[in-house]
Amino acid sequence: MTYPKVESQPNFPQLEEGVLARWERDQTFAKSLAARPVGTNGDNEFIFYDGPPFANGMPHYGHLLTGFVKDAVPRYQTMRGRHVDRRFGWDCHGLPAEVEAEKELGIAGHPAIAAFGIDKFNDACRTSVLRYTDEWQRYVTRQARWVDFENDYKTLDTPYMESVMWAFKTLHEKGLIYEGFRVLAYCWRCETPLSNTETRMDDVYKDRQDPALTVSFTLDSGEKILAWTTTPWTLPSNLALAVGPDIDYAVLSHPDGNIYILAEARLGSYEKELEGAEVLRTIKGRDLVGRQYTPIFPFFAGTKNAFQVLGAEFVTTEDGTGVVHMAPGFGEDDQIECNAAG
Hints:
- The protein is an alpha/beta fold.
- It has 9 helices and 13 strands.
- It has 2 domains: 148 residues, Rossmann fold; 92 residues, Alpha-Beta Complex (Isoleucyl-tRNA Synthetase, domain 2), CATH 3.90.740.
């Protein structure tokens, strides 16, 4: 057999488009499904629902990258002889759809939406959320992915929403649902918590200068440990202090008669405030863990296991005192560490 002629400088996009054209002409994807039986009660099926993107925005590099993984797994299962339907889906819920509809309608906020009409606003969201489905189909197909767009699913479809309710009900009946607390960003305009993804969307941050405070907390042994905070309004909710277990902390005798503790690496930043102070010794952060201190406000004085020094890996000496004030009602890391400490 003669080896086919290969161009010295092949046009790869043209070759790829030729493959795509042949797949479409020969209905290769459909034939791959027909050639593999579903099996008895679906025992030869590999179920794959493509995790839904928002359809009211254009695809980007992140979709491209994850798309190849989504294609590799179903192809592997197909090569093993499994019947693999690959239904594409659309995420039609959440803030992106609502914000886009608000922009298009020229309204903003719950009062304006209510005045406009909830039913009409929902219709606008439905129209907006599926605007770019054709672009998505061309994008995904150009990736050489095999995906079923004709039998797609939408999170706004009643059967889909009912299936989610059924799944939640089943989990609840099995005792797998619990109520807890979590610190999340909150949007007062939208009247809803925000996901981490939504806090990274365009125009969600505003630069501003806030005061930072260095506060002394009196340990049960009498020393004053210095904590730094950029959120002084959370101090009434303080429940713990955090130190870095492997950080070196200086114990200083100050002319004012007090003994202060802060990270040794941060002494230079407090040279003025600590003028005349003498370093008595240095200790590791782990030696401070478990020490109790007196709360500076009485609001939560009776809280069990509160007002102690915790060890936390996120504590650094890049700024502040190397001691972090912990208010679990305001900070995600604070809440995680305080929950772990009971």
